[in-house]
Amino acid sequence: MRWELNRLALAITSMVALAFLVPLTFATRQIAHDRAIGDARQQAAAMVAALAVDADPQLLTSAVASTVAGGAGRLAIHLPGLEPVGATHVTADDIASANRYRRPVTAAATGGIAYLQPSVLSDGRAVVIEVFVTDEEMRRGVWPAWLALGGLAIVLVGGSVLVADRLGGRLVRATRGLADSSRRLGAGELAVRVQPSGPRELRDAALAFNTMAGDLRRLLDAERELAADLSHRLRTPLTALRLDADAMPPSLIADRMRQACDMLDSELEAIIAGARLGVEARGTQSSDLVEVLADRLAFWSALAEDQARPWEVVGGDRPVPVPLPRSELILAVDALLGNVFAHTPEGVAFRVGVSAAGLFVDDAGPGISDPANAVQRGVSGAGSSGLGLDIVRRVAEAAGGRLTIERSPLGGARIAMLLGVPEPGPAIPGPRVAGRRRLTR
């Protein structure tokens, strides 16, 4: 934008300078021409006065020689019937034309023009005074004037461009500050504000941005509090469910129900804590995908055993740090694994792969016939809420990656959460994914 403003100022001032320079160049040349003719007129007027005193050729020769033009050989007096007194540069026809018109005229001559001034002696005879004006005299001072005008135009254009650059710099800095603050706000820095500067319109835009940022923060705070309140309301039915589980006779099912209640209570606590944490604090968190996967497989593997599902894990030999809160990764992992249990028959095998590239889940089920429709939020072709894959997509995009749905080597669907995380360094001992069961085909 700054360069565009400079180009605009350069174009406008150049056109204005040209609009003045073109007529001024002709005017200065005409002024020099008129000045030279004016000097010639003065020289001729002096000779008219000398002729009025005495028309003796010898005296006129002395008078001609005493003038500047006569000394330079550019002045002559044409007396009737006599040779011209001084140096002449015109023909007899030019002299006759001057006598005929009875007024000053100019005649073309080699190297310049001749100014012819008719006059009358005391005895009534016509006489013509000739003053030769060279081309150099008519152009004297023109080139310096043109150079001065050109230099003045350059200074004016350069000065206007410099002033436009300074003003444009303020405008560009204010615009860049507003754009940078907008990007930071979009990235989750809700505390960012803009210092109003620049033209009035940009200051108004900065004030509007600050107002919008404040309103947005208040709205998000209200949404987080609402999410925390709604999650807290689930504690009441969860407490009743836990009491019922504790009242059950000791058995495998009772132990599983109590374990599920404990896990659900932990999840609610994590949701409430995450909702109250805020966007800025959550943006600085990082979690290990391998650790989260190992923790969640401890829960899903029990259900896989009950449903006689063969499964295995590929990878997980080194940590995979992801710049997301642990609760976000848990949501994505549970959505991927839960999709297998919800949409494939019991006994169908699945495979989980984890690496720095991301996480994928293969199954041997019927697959997904319409991948584009499957990731639409709230849309499901299998009777579910339609939120699971959208959660995975949102988490992947938050980490700089994407969600892909392909055909699995096992014959069903492969759902991959590809992460835009840097490649790890040398292998560092980390939490291994425990409880693996080899996949049988």
Q: What value does the Rg take, in angstroms?
A: 50 Å
User: Any idea what the CATH superfamily of the largest domain is called?
Assistant: Histidine kinase-like ATPase, C-terminal domain
- In CATH, what is the class of the largest domain? Alpha Beta
Question: How are helices and strands ordered from N to C?
Answer: HHHEEHEEEHHHHHHEHEEHEEHHEE
Number of domains: 4
User: Which blocks of ≥5 consecutive residues have pLDDT under 50?
Assistant: 423-441
Structural class computed from helices and strand pairing:
alpha+beta
User: What is the annotated CATH architecture of the largest domain?
Assistant: 2-Layer Sandwich
Strand content: 5-15%
Percent helix among the residues?
55-70%
Give the overall shape, derived from the CA principal axes: rod-shaped
Main sheet characteristics: 5 strands, antiparallel
Q: How many E-type strands?
A: 12
Strand order of the largest sheet: 2-1-5-4-3
